[in-house]
Design goal:
Layout (H helix, E strand, L loop, with lengths): L1 H11 L6 E4 L1 H11 L2 E3 L2 E3 L3 H12 L3 H15 L3 H16 L3 E4 L4 H8 L1 H4 L1
Antiparallel strand pairs: 1-4, 2-3
Helix pairs in contact: 2-5, 3-4
């Protein structure tokens, strides 16, 4: 988590006070309730890894750009109140299972409540 924080700060030149990490199981659980996702004008229902691989192979995007496409699509999906509620519930469930972690430890629920899922992705 320390290295992730340093990488984000280096890449953005913005100091951050928290890092959220999500494994593929947690991501896919959220994508399942957020789908279909509008990825660059096409609606898809797929795992995060499959979306990233497709974006890299067909669009020639970097892994980082493909991840940002997913983030934008999930944020767009969260504008639907029903999907947003479902995504929050799934995120909390995945957090309790250890598929989402955050430093400082224990602050994920507060962040989710104060910022909303579309703002933390």
């Amino acid at each position: 988590m320390k290295f992730a924080k340093e990488i984000v700060e280096y890449q953005t030149q913005i100091p951050i006070d928290a890092v959220v990490a999500i494994n593929s199981e947690g991501l896919d659980a959220i994508l399942d309730v957020a789908s279909p996702l509008n990825i660059n004008g096409s609606y898809v229902n797929a795992s995060g890894i499959d979306i990233i691989r497709e974006e890299q192979s067909s669009g020639g995007e970097s892994r980082g750009d493909a991840v940002l496409d997913i983030v934008r699509a999930v944020a767009e999906s969260a504008t639907n109140p029903d999907k947003k509620t479902a995504m929050i519930n799934v995120a909390l469930d995945q957090y309790s299972k250890g598929n989402i972690v955050m430093t400082p430890q224990g602050s994920f629920v507060g962040l989710l409540a104060s910022k909303g899922i579309e703002n933390i992705l």
